[in-house]
Write a structure and sequence with these properties.
Layout (H helix, E strand, L loop, with lengths): L1 H20 L19 H32 L6 H35 L12 H5 L11 H18 L10 H11 L4 H16 L6 H17 L5
Helix pairs in contact: 5-7, 5-8, 6-7, 7-8
Length: about 230
């Protein structure tokens, strides 16, 4: 009996080893994670519209609440004050438009007068390069030179009784200068426009522009008399 048991155990062990060594009848397919489809353009547009509408409603509610709060406490909308402010803004816009028009005309005249550059242009000598625009001051860029002349104009006007306030813009100060010296309106406008361009414009400043501002400053120095 024990011999049969040993034979049966040996047979089962051999069959198990053969089954373990046999290759599997099929391979398990690789796992591919599901691909989430991207959000379509229509969904994105709808989301943007919903977001815009939501914030529009929120802002409208805030404004309505603020107006209700002010009205409950006795504050009223001053139409005359608003009309005056709108008038000031319109005047400022007209002034800016006039200045832009003058600036465009000035650029057009400069382009018409400017001669064509020669192909065989001779480079300036080292002595000419070292020559300074301002005695005792090292040569500076055209942008800095225009700022220098404008600040000299501000100082000259201050010495003659027309001082620029700290909060005053160049355009506002220009109106005061023209009221004090109306005969120099064009020169004052040109110097103010050149300063604004040098101060705020990223475009390079031409040397011809510096020469024109230098000439205007030379004329203004003799015209800015004491103002009472």
């Amino acid at each position: 009996m024990s011999s049969l048991t040993r034979l049966f155990s040996a047979a089962m062990t051999q069959n198990a080893e053969e089954l373990a060594n046999q290759p599997p009848e099929f391979e398990r397919p690789p796992y591919n994670p599901p691909i989430i489809p991207p959000m379509s353009e229509s969904n994105s547009a709808a989301s943007s519209i919903i977001t815009f509408a939501f914030w529009t409603v929120i802002i409208a509610l805030i404004v309505a609440s603020l107006l209700f709060f002010l009205r409950e406490r006795g504050y009223h909308f001053d139409k005359n004050f608003a009309r005056e402010r709108l008038g000031t803004i319109r005047e400022w816009l007209r002034e800016v438009r006039r200045r832009l028009g003058r600036r465009a005309n000035s650029i057009r005249r400069d382009l018409m007068r400017r001669p064509a550059a020669s192909i065989s242009e001779v480079s300036p000598s080292p002595a000419a390069k070292a020559k300074s625009w301002f005695p005792g001051i090292k040569p500076s860029s055209p942008r800095d030179q225009i700022r220098f002349y404008y600040l000299a104009l501000v100082q000259r006007a201050s010495d003659q009784g027309v001082r620029r306030r700290t909060s005053e813009t160049p355009l506002e100060f220009s109106r005061e200068l023209k009221e004090a010296w109306p005969e120099s309106n064009d020169a004052l406008d040109e110097m103010t426009d050149a300063f604004l361009e040098a101060r705020y414009s990223p475009q390079p400043i031409e040397k011809d522009k510096v020469l024109a501002i230098r000439e205007q400053w030379a004329r203004l120095k003799g015209k800015l008399r004491p103002h009472k």
